User: Fold this.
Amino acid sequence: MAGKLDGYVALVTGASSGIGAATAVELAAQGALVVLVARRAERLAELAERIAAAGGQARVLAADIAERGVPAQVVADAVAAEGRLDILVNAAGVMLNGDALERPLSEWEQMVDLNLMALLATTKAALPHLVQAAQGARGVADVVNISSIAGRVASRTAGVYNATKFGVTAFSEALRQEFARRNVRVSVVEPGAVQTELFDHQAPKAQERLSRACPRWNTCTPRTWPRPSPISSPAPAASRWPRW
Assistant:
């Protein structure tokens, strides 16, 4: 049976693990040819084989999109190879939380470079192709940005991660307003705690604190998120997945 996305191309960053990998699998199951982007080529190759074994299509583009100029090249390579781009999922990210006095500035820069700047650069490069795709038979194109409840609720030791995710959420809403009439749908997904490799990158103290706040992953919600700032909204808006 034909999938809803047969003949369409999706590019997923952060596709080597976690939400990015799961999203790529689902898009392929819906019939899209999925361009898998991340640094770890071996992980991408394994995922591409998994997708192919299930009857889907995937192309591997190993790249570090945190490097200047790389996002534009990745998008250009994908479009050159496949002839179009219909869906962009920005799922790449890193979380390096910890005491602001103890953690190095380089970790803050790493979060800004990947979580925010790489997302902006990839989206910027993709937008002309998405606008063009929206004029085709499907009638729409999609940008899906993976933010976080940390983009709505600030907490101690997570200030820079909060800043990047607040930025992703704000950028997504502004972009939605700007491109809605061009039929480019912009969605932001704001998960709570998800059991992925993201938490393994944090300082031990930060991992311990989150473990205390969320002893069971499936019960960690905005209400159990550690000590939200009183000036922040108490809970995120409902996540909005697009109707593919």
